[in-house]
Amino acid sequence: MPWARRRIPLAWLLLVRQPVRLAIALAGIGFAGILMFMQLGFRDGLFDASVTIHRLFDADLVLVSPRTMSSISMAAFPEGRLVQSLADPDVAAMTPVQWEFVLWRNPENRRTRSILALGFDPEDPLLSDPSVQRQAPLLRLPGRVLFDERSRPEFGPVADWFRAGRSVQTEVSGQRLRVAGLVQLGPSFGADGNMLVSRETFRTIAPPGSRGGIQLGLLRLRRGADPLTVQRRLDGQLPSDVKVYTKDQFIEFEKNYWRTSTAIGFIFTLGAAMGFVVGCVIVHQILYGDVSDHLPEYATLMAMGYGLADLLGVVAREGLFLAILGYLPAYGVAQGLYALIRNSTRLPVLMDPQRAGLVFALILSMCLFSALLAMRRLTDADPADIF
Amino acid sequence: MTETPSLQPVIQARGLCHAYGRGTMRRQVLQSIGFSVASGEIVLLTGPSGCGKTTLLTLIGALRSVQQGELEVLGVPLQSADRERRRRVRRRIGMIFQGHNLLRCLTAEQNVQMGADLLPTLAYGERRAVARQWLRAVGLGDHLRQFPHDLSGGQKQRVAIARALAARPRLLLADEPTAALDGRTGREVVELLRRLARDQGCGVLMVTHDPRILDVADRLVTMEDGRLMPGALRQTGR
């Protein structure tokens, strides 16, 4: 509508000239928005956290056992399969990886806790993280470990001690190990902490049942090769005791486990849905009360010749303004709370544009839906009653 | 639609009847009303309360559908007029209510502009100018930015008059516009209404109980029990 054709912004004035009602409405919408941001943030953060290490692997293709369900139950497969795949002309290099949960003794209070240990040959690239690549040669000495300093604090003040120059020694599966360096990976859903060791060291700490075979095979392709094509080819050629994924498929496979095999997605989605419902109730109460209070005024406008459509437009715009005004503070507070969560839980909870858009769409539909319900009250505005 | 010539009636009613309720609860409030109001004419409608004055006013104001009889307002036959046609007629009728019915969240100026906003052809700035001009005309040029609750009863009623006139009506309907006002203020408001309506060449039908303002009328119409009294269409001598 051209600027010159605009009218008195009645919807806006109705809101701002009733500051108390507006404040209550915005508090309600903001609360609902924050709740949705938190629940969805936790959900996505937990799913993302489950693949923290997966994302870091220096690989184009990944070999796992078909019995592997997720990172917390990695089954072994014969290492020979990895060597076999080297025969493919597009495969350039490989890294066999061993993957087990072992018991780490907190060097301060001597309590043990389960930690994820990755065993690899220090000569082979494992993670595309420069500090890992730089420190990998330190693992050539037996009994040395690179400790993930972003592991949960229950593993002890390893990073602080190490930085202070102390020699940090602890016991893993009954073997004495020494921290040779610190890396930054991050805890995931399944693993509260991570450590990297050489395959020789791994052999000494792994549970006896899993000393044969490997849990993970990383393959790097020649420049220009299409991972999907090679993945299909290898998956067809290799026996059925091994499965080939592209790196993205491997990440998706892990996320999918947490999404479908656990209640996490359901719980947090339900939490977000409750925020939505609470928001709907609050906005509806506010708008319904607003329409009821102004019913004689709406009837007057109808008597003056304004149509029902004009008045429905006023209520709809009130809903729209409430959505925008309520969303902005929710967005700001959520940013702050995300930072708080990142610091206290070390989960990768970030404001991503997709979720920001989703929450705005939810708040908008919440406000417009409530406006729609409040509009039914508007049909009670009978201009014949006001004389 | 062509401009109504001044001699053509703005209201013409013939055999107008109206009843509320159904069956045994049915109550006849208007019985074969027939009268007309010419453009530029000021007609006062009086009668005891409950005699059907307000019902008649809501029918003429196109706020209710006509049940029986003929009613033509501003050249539009309202019998069998649908909601949308009645709304279009209402746009050309100014209404002033007993309780001023101003919008609480709007300033005096914005309230008047709600009337001017109904004019489809004017730009925003022009409609705003119209609103100010009418507030000045009712003597409230200094109160543009005040809210209704900061205005006295007489001032509110004057804002309501300005709002009604800002939409350039051809017909003005007023329901006891002086009821909430003291004698002197009521008198002032009605004088103002008469002067402005006459300048606009706009017909006025005003329901009132107030004997002090009867002399502003060109004609006086008395109703009783849903009928116009015989010989009621008397001239007031103006």
Description of the structure:
The complex is a heterodimer of chains A (387) and B (238). Chain A has 387 residues and is α+β, with helices and mostly antiparallel strands. Chain A folds into 2 domains: 8-49 and 263-386, no CATH class; 66-241, no CATH class. Chain A contains 13 helices and 9 strands. Chain A has a 9-stranded mixed sheet with strand order 5-6-4-7-3-2-8-1-9. In chain A, helix 1 (10-16) crosses helix 12 (308-345), helix 2 runs antiparallel to helix 10 (264-293) and helix 2 (19-49) crosses helix 12 (308-345). Chain A is elongated and about 95 Å long. In chain B, helix 3 packs across helix 4 (124-137), helix 3 (108-116) runs parallel beside helix 5 and helix 5 runs parallel beside helix 6. Chain B has 2 domains: 9-92 and 169-238, P-loop containing nucleotide triphosphate hydrolases (Rossmann fold), CATH 3.40.50.300; 99-168, no CATH class. In chain B, strand 9 (219-224) and strand 10 form a beta hairpin. In chain B, the strands form 2 sheets. In chain B, strands 3, 6, 7, 8, 9, 10 and 11 form a 7-stranded mixed sheet that branches. In chain B, strands 2-1-4-5 form a 4-stranded antiparallel sheet, with helices on one face. The relative contact order of chain B is 0.18. The radius of gyration of chain B is 18 Å and the shape is globular. Chain B has 238 residues and is α/β, with parallel strands linked by helices. The chains are: A alpha+beta (387), B alpha/beta (238).
